[in-house]
Design brief:
Layout lengths: L7 H14 L15 H29 L4 H12 L4 H8 L11 H14 L6 H16 L28
Length: 168
Amino acid sequence: MFIPNGEPPAYAIARLVCLYKTRGLTIYEWNTHKITQGTIIRFINHDLMKIRASLTIARDASRYMSATLPSAGAAAYIIMDSGHEPSIAHRFLAPHGETLNLGDPRISLARIMRLYAGARDDHPDWECLAYMLRAWNLYNAKRRVAHVTWKPDDGIPRVSNSHSRAAR
C-alpha cells in the first residue's frame, strides 16, 4: 500500500468519496462509519491523478468563494465530474469571468462557504460537501434559488446525472 509523500489531503478526499459511494449511510454515520484504510489507499492509488486535479480545482474554488475548502471541494469535484464533462464541474465550482444572475445556486453556495470559513465552530467536511452537491443538483436542473438549503436529516444529496448544462 502506498500513500504518496506530500499528499496529505489525498486521504481526506478519498475518504469523503468512499463514504459518498457507500450507499445507505445516514448523515449521522459519516463520522463513525469505518472504511478500511486499504479501501481508501486503493482509491488513492487508482485515482491519484484525478485527486491531484481535483485539488487544483478546489484551490481555485476556494479563491473564488473566499473560503477554504480543499478536501470537501476536491471530493465534490470528483463526485460531480463522474459522468459529466470536467469543465462543467470546474465552471460550477469556480465560475471566473461569468456573470452570475440572481438566483444562481453558485451565489448562495459561495455565501454559505464564506460563512463556514468565518465561523468559530468547526464544520465537518461532509457538511460542506452536502451543500456543494445540493447546489450542483439545483444548478444542473437550472433552478433559481435565493438560498441553497440542506438539513442533515436529508442525507448527503446524490448527484444528478443531468447534462442540461453541457450545451452551454
